[in-house]
Amino acid sequence: MAIVIGLMLVLGLGGFLLLDRAAKKEPPVPPPLTGAARAYARNLKLTNVEMKAHESYLKQSVVEIQGNIQNVGDRMVKTVEINCIFYDAYGQVVLRERVPIVSPKIGAVAPEQIKRFRLPFDNIPEGWNQVMPQLVMAAIEFQ
User: What's the rounded Cα separation, in Å, for the pair 6 and 9?
Assistant: First the structure.
C-alpha cells in the first residue's frame, strides 16, 4: 500500500511540475507587419475612436474602446489586429494587448467601406493613467 501511495505522489508531483513549466512558457511572439501590410496600413483609418468605462454585472470595471475602421485603399482586408498599449502616470507600459478589430468572424472590409469595432478590456491594471491607449497596427491580412 505504501508503494502505491508513494508512486501516486511521485506521478502527481511530476504532472504538476510538467504543467507548471508549460504554464510559465512565454507565448510565441506574433510576426511583425509584412512589407505589403506596412505599406497598406496608411489606407486604414481609425475614426470616431472613443473610450467609455462602465461596471459589468460581476462588479468589474470594463473599459471599452469603440470606433470605426475605414479602408480607403483598393484591396479587400480580411484581418486587422492592433496593439492596444496602456501606460501609467510615468509613461511606463502597464498592459500591451493585441486584439482583432477586423476578422473573418466579423467580416472583411472592402475598399471604401467603413466598419464599426468595439474592444472591451476588463484586465487593465490599477496603475493605468486613464488616458486613451496607443493603438498600433500589428497585423493586416488581405483576402
Answer: 5
Residue 81 in domain: yes
Instruction: Residue 52: give the domain boundaries.
Output: 35-142
Tell me how many degrees the CA angle 77-75-39 measures, rounded to the nearest 5: 90
Q: What is the pLDDT of residues 108-127, one digit of tens each?
A: 999 999 999 999 998 888 88
Q: How many CB atoms lie within 10 A of CB 57?
A: 6
* Amino acid code (one letter) for 74: D
In a domain, residue 11? The reply is no
Tell me how many domains the chain contains: 1
Q: What is the CATH number of the domain that holds 56?
A: 2.60.40
Instruction: Report the candidate in 76, 134, 72 with the shortest Cα–Cα distance to residue 102.
Output: 76
Contact 45, 109 (CB under 8 A): no
Our CA dihedral for 57, 61, 62, 63, rounded to 10 degrees, sits at: 160
Q: Which residue from 65, 57, 51 is spatially nearest to 120, judged by alpha carbons?
A: 65
Cα end-to-end span (Å), the chain: 63
pTM of the full structure: 0.73
Is position 7 within any domain? no
